[in-house]
Amino acid sequence: MPKLLETTRVAREARILRAAVACFARQGYYGTTMEEIAAEAGIAKGAAYVYFPSKEAIFLALYDTWGCTLREEILAALATLTPAERNSARWVLRTIVEVTGRHVQKEAATCRVLMEGRSLAAYVPAIAERVATEQAQAQAQLTTLIQGGVAAGEWPADFDAALHATMVRATIHGLMATWHMAPGSFSWEAAAAALARR
Amino acid sequence: MPKLLETTRVAREARILRAAVACFARQGYYGTTMEEIAAEAGIAKGAAYVYFPSKEAIFLALYDTWGCTLREEILAALATLTPAERNSARWVLRTIVEVTGRHVQKEAATCRVLMEGRSLAAYVPAIAERVATEQAQAQAQLTTLIQGGVAAGEWPADFDAALHATMVRATIHGLMATWHMAPGSFSWEAAAAALARR
Amino acid sequence: MPKLLETTRVAREARILRAAVACFARQGYYGTTMEEIAAEAGIAKGAAYVYFPSKEAIFLALYDTWGCTLREEILAALATLTPAERNSARWVLRTIVEVTGRHVQKEAATCRVLMEGRSLAAYVPAIAERVATEQAQAQAQLTTLIQGGVAAGEWPADFDAALHATMVRATIHGLMATWHMAPGSFSWEAAAAALARR
Amino acid sequence: MPKLLETTRVAREARILRAAVACFARQGYYGTTMEEIAAEAGIAKGAAYVYFPSKEAIFLALYDTWGCTLREEILAALATLTPAERNSARWVLRTIVEVTGRHVQKEAATCRVLMEGRSLAAYVPAIAERVATEQAQAQAQLTTLIQGGVAAGEWPADFDAALHATMVRATIHGLMATWHMAPGSFSWEAAAAALARR
DNA sequence: TATGAATGAGAGTTCATTCAT
DNA sequence: GATGAATGAACTCTCATTCAT
Q1: Ramachandran angles phi, psi of D131, nearest 5°
Q2: Which chains have 3+ CB pairs within 8 A of C?
Q3: What domains sit in chain B, N to C, each tagged with a CATH number?
């Protein structure tokens, strides 16, 4: 009887979550069974239910984790910028896209799950909730960033910051989707540069 | 026993397809049963199998139909442009986005299904095939269009047409996703204009 | 592939219900699986769900059927009484108990299920509802019967008809329980006579 | 880690048993999980297995306890009777029913469990055994009591003591069932009096 | 062609019981 | 003794698909 090697609850949850990411990324939410997740985690089916009340809960937990991870990476990247760079909204924008691109490449599986979540949101209320919250946050932060850029003269005074934020988010989302369908079909750096240039 | 009113096979298929769109849009692919599609079409479960060998086949057929519809609308819209406008790649680009925006609003259900298809593609090979083909076509056409624009001096000579095409497609995709999550949250016209301005 | 031999929906439902009675009587509600019921009915698991949405629904349907059957038997028995007998509340009471006794012996399985229903009612709201309705009806009818007897001088004028009705029902219920635990341990005729003599 | 406060095994068992009564009464045998019993007792799931080998064993233990409690109450009540009363079988009968009625009201939870046990007995051999033993004892004691009454002229010489005992038990059982379905729907005192009058 | 009853593999979830700590 | 994580068989219910009529 293989027992979980981890000693803390958090670590055990993380192990199951890791297994879930692998399964969901490989087979999709509906193509994955709880048994497979458990097997991937090296535990019995029932053990997964000790940590998560349902398959949906696992997906949701994954979703939460993901947002945090990317946010942290972005913050870390911004922290390495020079003060001048950090004061440029365009530069920050570019960095955000670049980091996202790197994240997508490094965490391909997690991102696949994230992408599916966006789709699932249309039919699974609980997921819709998370996605909406996340999107609203991102929209607000991006809008603020761009407004700052407008104020600093990086864009013309009549620039529609909110629309631009929406479009930036849309583009990033679309690029992620494209990347997942055809990894390597474009350069994230070039895309980041292009996006920041607009 | 009320039989199908249509007399041609094609018309009967169309009726089933229409029912499928409604169901898939409402409940998603996995949330929809063959029984529901049949009920929506006003026929018996078994009858659907006379026209389509499987649920997946219905989805695929839907997918094909969709591409055609939007393409036709775009062509029709381009036909109304003045020769001068039609010669401007930027103007054509803008028109494409605008038409897409209008299409998304008019055919919300169909577009929901299309969006889900993009997601399903990651796990259902048959869908992946369609999506890949469609995307490749769109990419090629857009690239050609932009290259024409570059040649005509609408963009600088060193402009990366392929990357730009990718980004335009990504943005459109992202905007559709955004629209589905939050219809009315932005203006397609403004987005089209912004996209063509770059 | 064994198909149901019956041609009407009602007949098919009856077949499943008959199988369910056998299983429930043998193993109890919780000890019976849908698969067993289906097997007993000679069909596949899924087929049972074509006719009944759940195990509980099967139990409920059984319950309804049962009440009707006994009621019919009692009415039939009362119809064979002479006018004089029929006018005697005591005689009618005795007949009711006798018929119940015969029914219990003839339909032992059904009655076992009925008895379990009484118990299940404490924890399954839907069952509680049926049982309560049935009991209220029986109580009302018995009370009316006894009141008639009181009016006719069969019992003293200060006789508490409602209490007596309650006690008669209680006794019948208790006798049924006793019979199921130890069939043959007493004579239903003698019990009927004793009950009517009070 | 809060340990059980009791120091003797018996006291610890009693605590678990008390918790079990509460759970079984509330949710029924099949609706109760070992985890719930343990939680109600304030211990961990595994600890319950130190004292009882299985859920069934807990139920059985409960059953034994119950019989004792009621028996004690009855004996205590009989001890308060005057010699004359104690010599009257009818009076004793009436007392037994009254005490049972009071017990049912005071120990509603325990009695619910007892009632369910009667039902469970049909499908769980171990429970059937207890119930049969208990019933046989009660039947024997009641028969003896009534026979005494017959000998003392309280009933006619040809009175069927065994049948009457069966009916008394049946009535008590039925009244308990009725009480549980509809507490307060009749008066135990009146019922006791009526039963003793027969 | 159309019907819809029937199939049966399979999914998510539960829970009595075990056992390493 | 006590804990509670882990097990895994079992259960109810679903549904794409088949096929006799």
Answers
A1: -60, -45
A2: D
A3: 1-53 (1.10.10.60), 55-197 (1.10.357.10)
